[in-house]
Structure formats: C-alpha cells, structure tokens
Specification:
A seven-stranded parallel beta sheet has the order 10-9-11-8-7-12-13. Strands 5-4-3-6 form a four-stranded parallel beta sheet, with helices on both faces. The longest helix is centred in the N-terminal third of the chain and has 22 residues. The protein contains 14 helices and 16 strands. It folds into two domains: 238 residues, Aldehyde Dehydrogenase, Chain A, domain 1 (3-Layer(aba) Sandwich), CATH 3.40.605.10; 145 residues, 3-Layer(aba) Sandwich (Aldehyde Dehydrogenase, Chain A, domain 2). Helices cover 41% and strands 19% of the residues. The model has no long low-confidence stretch (mean pLDDT 95). It is of the alpha/beta class.
C-alpha cells in the first residue's frame, strides 16, 4: 500500500474499526501471558529488527527522500533518519524492556473483611491502547514494546513523514513476536495517512480503552476534542527554575545553564528563569555569562534588562507562556517565593519546575505549592525523565492528573482489578 491512499470515509471507518475488533481479541490473549512469555516475545522482536534491518533502512530512505522533496528542515530530517547505529539502539531498547520488572499481577492491596470475604487489588493491563504520534520512527517500537510488556494490544498511528519506516518496524515487531507465540494483531499500525483515521480512532470507544497522543499542541488538542475514551496527554513543557534568595549562586548558575542548554529541544528543558530580587544583581551577570557562552538569547523583564543591559532584550507578555524548544530563555525578577509560585502556577504547563535554595523550609513550600507533575529542589529540570527516575523506559510525560502523571512507564500502562474470594457469603441470607 502506498503512502498516499485514496480511500473513502466509509473505507477508512471500516478499516480502522476492523483493526479495533482484532486488537480487542488480541488484548484478551495478551492479558494471560506470563512474564517469561512476554520477555521471550520481546527478545524475538529485537532479533527480527536486526534480521530485517536492510529492509527497514530501505523504507526509511523513502521517507527521507520524500521529506527532502517536501522541504523538511534538517532537524526534522535528522529525527526521521535511521542508520545501522540507530536501528541497533532500537533493537537494544526492546531487549532492555524485556529485562524490566513486569507490573502485571502486582498486589496493590489485600484485606480480609469481618465476614471472611478476601479482597485483593491486582494490577492488570488496560486493554487496547491507541497511540498517535509524529515524526520519529523509533516511537513505533518504543510504544509497541512498552504496551506489550504491560499486557496491552496497541493500534499505532504515526505521522505521514515516517509512514514507510513505521510500517516496516511495526511489521518486523509483529512478525518477530509471532515466532515466540505473540497473539496475532497485538501490534497494528494504521497503514495509511489520511487524517480521518485519527477521527475514527477517537470515536472507537468500543475497542480502544485509552488514547495517548504524542506530538504538537495542535495534534493533542484535536485528539482531546474528539476522543470518546480517556486521553493521557502532554501539552507544553514550560519549565521554570526559581533562584531563591538563599540559593547557592554557583549551583544556581550550573542548574540554569544545564536545564536550558543540555538539550533545548526537549520538553523538560528550562524555558523561564525566575530570580529573587535580593540576589538578582549578583546572580544575573553570572548566569548571563554562562548562557551567552552557549549562544542563548535572553529575553528579560524590565529589572532584568536594567541589570544586564544589552545582553538581554525586552520580554513580551507572551514570553512568559512560551515553550521555545530553542536557545531562547525568558528571565524575570520576582519579589518573593510567593510571587514565583504564583507565576509558575499561572504561566507553567504543570510539567517540571525547580527551586534552587539552601533553605529547607522554602524548598518544602515550593514543592508543596507548585502544581506540577515534577517539582525539583536543587536538581536540573533535565532529570524529569522515566529513565532518569529509574523506570527503565517511558512512553511520554503526562501533564494530566488522572490516571497517570509525570513520566509514564510500565506501571502507568496498567489499571487494577478487585478480586474477591469467599465461601458462599451472601449480602442477605435466604428467608
């Protein structure tokens, strides 16, 4: 099937819903697989990625050629690119997931009631998860194998720019897994790029238990507005560092520069730096030197510009809510910890925010009062990551509050079930 397929709305509906029906059947079979069985399947998947590496790279070359012809930027083309090294990293990543602890079957709670009924709360798979994503073909593998390890079937809908690569990777994963008795249709990728397929997935609450959109704000807003099932989303990563009046200024410079420049294009990179007015005159020239050495454009409030002069340009109101994903940083001087918290809760995205301070009381107030998924004390925002948290792998970072928040790993791809055992207990005895 070619990348551009002329399908009627009815054909798209029928194709997507047929995939949903197959996924539901696969989910029932996946739910009863043992950890050893799932790990064997994952190892077989990794092996198949290596066996089919030449085919996958050939398909990836088609995506790159199409991307160049359509004028994709060098950065976007780099995100698309697979080579032998990157593909080996994908295969190794699958093997790493096989070594992670399996959350399915964990006993979360258990109790015996006075009437003798025994109740267990058990972690179980969610069922069928739909994942809609853009650009990077490695997400096809990441999403599929994390869902598999947590006992879920998955329907993947990747971006049009990576359609050939995505098809090849998904096919290799399913084919390799089936060699180790993976149920058919456990991993399905929508093979066409018509936008209507997103609408159909969002309406398929009979078969999809959850949708996870990964991509730009426009994609996420579209999915949220259409979905008839729960959505776990990650909007913007508008992350802050607040340098408190009691901060170790050398540490504060290092944390701010690392948070902004270690990798500015990711969601846990620093976007706004807040500085307590009592240390601003001393701190701002220090941090500006470190930022300027890394070619960071600084946009400051009036007080910041008064201190830094022509090192900073004037910030506009929209800068306080901007996710630059680039070498640009907004800087604001604040009068107090209270003002910093109010600014973060108003302009942030509930992703990751950090305070740098030596005062434990100030740190505890910040950690309790900032309403974000991850709140840090004297730690770079770049550590807000599933692998850095020791989860081994993640499918994304949720800025929601239900049912998952922060880095989403295997546990966040499960739900729970109550298993109640008794010996004939009745609510009301007969007669």
């Amino acid at each position: 099937m070619s990348a551009a397929v002329a399908l009627s709305p009815e054909e798209i509906h029928d194709a997507v819903f047929a995939m949903g029906k197959k996924a539901r059947m696969a989910a029932h079979a996946l739910a009863v697989l043992s950890t050893d069985q799932k790990n064997a399947i994952l190892r077989a998947m990794a092996a198949e990625l290596r066996v089919q590496s030449a085919e996958i790279l050939t398909e990836n070359a088609k995506d790159l050629a199409a991307g160049e012809a359509s004028g994709l930027t060098k950065a976007m083309l780099d995100r698309l690119l697979l080579d032998e090294t990157r593909l080996e990293a994908v295969a190794s990543g699958v093997e790493q997931v096989s070594k992670l602890d399996d959350p399915v079957g964990d006993i979360l709670d258990e109790r015996t009631r006075p009437n003798g009924i025994r109740i267990q709360q058990i972690r179980v798979p969610i069922g069928v998860i739909g994942i809609i994503y853009e650009s990077r073909p490695n997400v096809t593998s990441d999403a599929a194998v994390l869902c598999l390890k947590s006992g879920n079937a998955t329907i993947l809908r990747g971006g049009s720019e990576a359609i050939y690569s995505n098809r090849a990777i998904a096919a290799a994963l399913q084919a390799g897994g089936e060699k180790a008795e993976l149920p058919q249709n456990s991993i399905q990728l929508i093979p066409f790029t018509n936008r209507e397929s997103v609408n159909e997935m969002a309406s398929m609450d009979r078969y999809l238990d959850l949708i996870i959109p990964r991509g730009g704000k426009g994609l996420i807003e579209t999915v949220v507005s259409l979905a008839r099932m729960p959505v776990i989303k990650h909007y913007d990563g508008i992350c802050h560092v607040f340098v408190d009046r009691a901060a170790d200024l050398k540490m504060a410079v290092e944390i701010a520069v690392d948070s902004k420049t270690q990798k500015p294009s990711v969601c846990n990179a620093l976007e706004t730096l807040l500085v307590h007015e009592s240390v601003a005159k001393e701190f701002l020239p220090l941090v500006a030197e470190g930022l300027a050495a890394r070619k960071v454009e600084m946009r400051g409030c009036e007080k910041t510009c008064a201190i830094l002069g022509d090192q900073a340009s004037g910030a506009r109101e929209e800068d306080w809510g901007a996710e630059y994903l680039d070498y640009i940083l907004a800087i604001k001087v604040v009068a107090s910890l209270e003002e910093a918290v109010l600014h973060i809760n108003e302009h942030g995205s509930q992703h990751t925010d950090c305070i740098v301070t030596t005062e434990e009381g100030a740190a505890e107030r910040f950690l309790c009062e900032v309403d974000s998924a991850c709140v840090h004390h004297n730690v770079s925002t770049r550590f807000s990551d599933g692998e850095e948290f020791g989860f081994g792998a993640e499918i994304g970072i949720s800025t929601d509050k239900l049912h998952a928040r922060g880095p989403m790993a295997l546990r966040e791809l499960t739900s729970y079930q109550y298993r109640v055992r008794g010996e004939g207990q009745l609510k009301a005895p007969p007669g």
